[in-house]
């Protein structure tokens, strides 16, 4: 089990944006936000880079969960594997902790492990976005919906690692949240 979690962390260290950037001859750490995630890859390189990065980062999360299910680990153990793959993406050892921001990795984990909670999160995002008009701020609403659904469905016994992952993702988005809040609400 501990080997599974360590492996999950190191699988998380495989940052798709870094490889996509290498393919295009661009160091995404030196471009725009400097983030090694799908959003920055898309903004700098284009739609294909966004899609490849998103699928790669979500896919590595699904791979970690699939390995857990293959070995018949308990659900909470697999969820901790999900937390570790996201943590590896956020804080990769080989890049001194400067990874992505974890959204695609979280989507892969939540969609594969908790599709019902993912659907609630997705619906909350879709409903709130037209009013908030900021993906970053709407993300907070959708995460709250995910947490509320986990509490009301009495699934905290195995979803608590995903809630910890959300806390880390929000931590990584602190600056984006502050900037989005200023931009969105300074107009009012």
UniProtKB/TrEMBL annotation:
It is found in: Cell membrane. One of its GO terms (biological process) is phospholipid biosynthetic process. The keyword Cytoplasm does not apply. Keywords: Acyltransferase, Cell membrane, Lipid biosynthesis, Lipid metabolism, Membrane, Phospholipid biosynthesis, Phospholipid metabolism, Transferase, Transmembrane, Transmembrane helix. Its EC number is 2.3.1.275. The chain crosses the membrane at residues 6-24, 44-69, 75-95, 107-132, 144-171. Pathway: Lipid metabolism; phospholipid metabolism. It comes from the Bacteria. It is a multi-pass membrane protein. The keyword Acyltransferase applies. GO terms for molecular function: acyl-phosphate glycerol-3-phosphate acyltransferase activity. Catalyzes the transfer of an acyl group from acyl-phosphate (acyl-PO(4)) to glycerol-3-phosphate (G3P) to form lysophosphatidic acid (LPA). This enzyme utilizes acyl-phosphate as fatty acyl donor, but not acyl-CoA or acyl-ACP. Belongs to the PlsY family. Probably interacts with PlsX. This is Glycerol-3-phosphate acyltransferase. It comes from Planococcus salinus. The lineage of its organism: Bacteria, Bacillati, Bacillota, Bacilli, Bacillales.
